[in-house]
Amino acid sequence: MPAVSKGDGMRGLAVFISDIRNCKSKEAEIKRINKELANIRSKFKGDKALDGYSKKKYVCKLLFIFLLGHDIDFGHMEAVNLLSSNKYTEKQIGYLFISVLVNSNSELIRLINNAIKNDLSSRNPTFMCLALHCIANVGSREMAEAFAGEIPRILVAGDTMDSVKQSAALCLLRLYKTSPDLVLMGEWTSRVVHLLNDQHMGVVTAAISLITCLSQKNPDEFKTCVSLAVSRLSRIVSSASTDLQDYTYYFVPAPWLSCKLLRLLQCYPPPEDGAVKGRLVECLETILNKAQEPPKSKKVQHSNAKNAILFEAISLIIHYDSEPNLLVRACNQLGQFLQHRETNLRYLALESMCTLASSEFSHEAVKTHIETVINALKTERDVSVRQRAADLLYAMCDRSNAKQIVAEMLSYLETADYSIREEMVLKVAILAEKYAVDYSWYVDTILNLIRIAGDYVSEEVWYRVIQIVINRDDVQGYAAKTVFEALQAPACHENMVKVGGYILGEFGNLIAGDPRSSPLVQFNLLHSKFHLCSVPTRALLLSAYIKFINLFPETKATIQEVLRSDSQIRNSDVELQQRAVEYLKLSSIASTDVLATVLEEMPPFPERESSILAKLKKKKGPGAVSELEEGRREGGELNGGGERGGDASVMATSNASTPSPSADLLGLRSAAPVGSAAPSAGSLLVDVFSEGGPATASASVNDDGFLRDLEQPTEVSDSLLVEGPGDSDSAPPSVASEDPAPPLPEADELLNKFVCKNNGVLFENQLLQIGIKSEYRQNLGRMYLFYGNKTSVQFSSFCTTVTCPGDLQAQLNVQTKPVEPLVEGGAQVQQVINIECLTDFVDAPLLNIKFRYGGALQNVTLKLPVTINKFFQPTDMASHDFFQRWKQLSQPQQEAQKIFKAGQGMDTEVLKAKLLGLGTALLENVDPNPENYVCAGVIQTKGQQVGCLLRLEPNAQAQMYRLTLRSSKDTVSKRLCDLLAEQF
Amino acid sequence: MIGGLFIYNHKGEVLISRVYRDDIGRNAVDAFRVNVIHARQQVRSPVNNIARTSFFHVKRSNIWLAAVTKQNVNAAMVFEFLYKMCDVMAAYFGKISEENIKNNFVLIYELLDEILDFGYPQNSETGALKTFITQQGIKSQHHTKEEQSQITSQVTGQIGWRREGIKYRRNELFLDVLESVNLLMSPQGQVLSAHVSGRVVMKSYLSGMPECKFGMNDKIVIDKQGKGGATDEAAKSGKQSIAIDDCTFHQCVRLSKFDSERSISFIPPDGDYELMRYRTTKDIILPFRVIPLVREVGRTKLEVKVVIKSNFKPSLLAQKIEVRIPTPLNTSGVQVICMKGKAKYKASENAIVWKIKRMAGMKESQISAEIELLPTNDKKKWARPPISMNFEVPFAPSGLKVRYLKVFEPKLNYSDHDVIKWVRYIGRSGIYETRC
Question: What residues in B contact A32, CB-CB < 8 Å?
């Protein structure tokens, strides 16, 4: 019978394949394929219709050629024809070709969908399965659109065969994964859950995959599956291995199904129903019990299947985290695996234990395995297993075993793989900090860490140790001593030098008493490392030296000598050169008192989340993105903070610093300046300059570096947009562009900010930043305005004018120098304004700025912060002098008084700083009540001098102030009173 | 320097493996097989660097020859050596095939020992090699001890390519000018690119140590002579002279003399050798012109008509003419009608091949074909590869003419007139294509 032999063999195909296999070269193969393709083309082209068998054969050949890596661009139609055949083999080849080769070709897809639809509606289970497989294999959107409604119906229909149900469930899963929006939930969902009760294990297995996936999206709709799953699980677990026949795999009953059931249960919280829960616990116990039984077979498949169920059960136990008994048992079971000879099992055990360690119930149990884990860390041959061991050690660490674990990790670090060293270093640093009872131990550990793995110690680690040492008084002396000892090693890591330089600079005095670590010895030790270090470290060391001058005046000559040497003062690096020059000058000009103030010990750092932790989070990666972002930002901030630690005092003193490439090292750009960390120190320092050393101050202030220091984020919100032509409703745009815009509503508020200070950011929006720096002598003032272009586009027709409205013209003489009409993107231009006070005044001059940004005219008007108090000359006077004058000015119009509520806290230091900033002299021990503040000053105008006396009486309980001002001129009293009332 | 030399068959099995330097390990053999011969993507580059080891290979039929080195060698030198190696093997046992290599296993190792020393190429002149490496077919001609001892001095001497004391009863000289002409032409008949690469191959059977001088119609030489001589002669010769773009010579040619006087003088090796190679790009005589005509009739049919015209003296006969007309990839049937020769559709090559045995000059012939196409759902358009052509003509398409070949042998008593000289010109097609 030729037909039968034909149907079985497809001899032509076999010959073709063997021909290709026998080809000696690629070229020969291509020739053979070309020949065959031509043959098939002529056959398909031929007028007489091909029978099903030949069609199948040629389609098969095309498929084979395609799989060899050649393009096939015909034959699709023939394959689609095969779909409508009634023979299984022909249909199968047709579906195979389509699932391999079909792309979203519109005309064919319709035909294919039609054929699939026919097969789905046929009662033949084999054909239905073929069609379902094809849908799942192609899984395109078109198919999903066509069949997403049909398949659920087949899945839940009562009369569908088991094998078809199985295929339908998996096909639906696939469609749901590719286009979840097309698979609509409906009444079939509840019936899908009941498939868990199906007689046929295959159907259950397939359905579970579907349910797990669906329930992750809609947990509520599938809630009922929990109890069903539990009962199914208990039936499987308790069955004897022979009960399930086909579904028993190496003596383990239905291992895949069990794993899937356990995984499904992990999508839900523990069942609330007591009976269900009891049954589940029983199941889990049985699984744990079974793990203890001797293996029924020596085959690896048996143990693999058993362990798969066990690990899945343990993850479920960990997920529930509510059964202490089970958790401990799981932990013990994993403990056994820790010493198993299978590497994979050891890895999995370590990994699961990591999660177990975080549970409160099993933490103690995990801890009992510490020796084994440490051993694993040392002896394991596979690096990934060692990594897990390190993770586990980190997870199981607490106060009781921290010392041991840290010591072990430190000793392992010496031989650890390079790939995990950095992470290990971070972990050690975190553990040491987290569980430090004794901070000297912490310092020891970190210094050891730097010694052992200096290259892998990131910046955050040493910033952190410095933050902690600064914040803890009790450890400072010890730290200084340890660092000093550590630095004595002939070769020590640069990070060690950084820590050493910083700590000795701050706390070197604590160990100076010992002749072995006398100041000079300390200095020489540090300086011996100087030449081996990179520029940032050298800069830090220079700061340490200037601190030494303050701490130990006897080293002054030596250090000055070092600073004066050409290698410092003429260093090619701007940063180093500048520091050397400034420190040298500072040390030779400033008096010891000034030095002591400038170089005061660093104030404690505010407590924040450890930056190291943030770094570890970042390294670990798979954490939540937002959390990660936060960590990074925090890290950056601390970064600045930490650096600033070394340089904050320096920064305040070296306000003449020019912007240099290494300026970032100074932490100038960091968000929180001196003000936030050390408000007292910051404001005091400014005063030191304005009083103590007028010569240095006035010389060094004329520099925009100062501005940079003060360019901190101001209260001016970004939403404060420049008032452009479009904004003004009242006037047409052209008019608006010509006339200066009215002053911003916030202008007064801005003005008030500058009553007590001379420098800062006057105004800021998205385009422009205006910084201000001013100085006043007698009745003369000079103001430097810095216009910064914040965009990358240049401003054209940039023009500023200062006007004195109304009476002010007669009271104030203001002269400006014109500015360049072009401001490049990112550039800053400076404008000098000279001010002469003719007589006392109330209003402030207006500053109008006009420029074109990308064609649009921008127009801003601000009030220049020139207030009457700027022309104050402080006067010192004794108590009785003060009250004598006070009484002289007792006429009612000479006095202005206000009682008002405190706007901010009533911090003494802040108040003092503000009163000093006002320009008057703050008189101590004048008022009988020490809570009160009294000030005296003379306002210098061209025509006359107006003496002013001020008394501020805070009432801490009521949070109220009473402010009294007396002056020889009534307008002055009133104006000053108004101004000051806004300040407190 | 070359560290080792391997020969593989098409399956990647090693036939010959000779390692010259210690830095090449055994694993280099496998590295080349895995990364080049069995590479998933066909490797096109003749130089491959695998794990800091460079492999230079050439392929002859199904045989791979690979030279291996860890050093930074002159790649051109290595390839020149590989080509020489192929020539030497071909001279010893004919075609390079797996069969021949297996049969001449010992000989190849002997040759490799001789022509490469510690990776440095040595004398690879076949004639010289044949004097001391002998096998089956090549019998030693020198039996006396005295003659054997001469080999050393000759091979290491100044004229390594010729031994002394050769005697022939009849002094004969064969000179072949072999050229291959390459062309790319647009459908409208515009020449897009054309060049001729030619070789002068000689076979000399001359006694003693003759001094030869070869002259051809090189433009520079003719112009120089023209200046000195009569003007009408210059005009006459100027027409016939050719401009040689670049040329290389056999080592026997005195380069200093060529540089100064542009004369080619040499003491020839005995037997076969290639005297020079050259390349010209100007005034090329194109022996054939192909005029294609392709018409698409609907989606399922294509009509092709190709006319070839021979463009040389009617007295000359071109031979072995073959025109290859590519067909689209979805061809399902072809009907061909040709007036001359035979034409056939070769499915395995996706082309119609039209063969004509002989064709005289100034003739033309035509083929027309109807190609049926199978409609495909592929939107790709057929790229229309060019029609290519093969032929052989008895003249030099570059226009090169041998003006003289003089032989001087002062020591022996025969003169230039006694030598019988044969000159032959053969022009073949290189890549001779016309777009359609």
Answer: 348
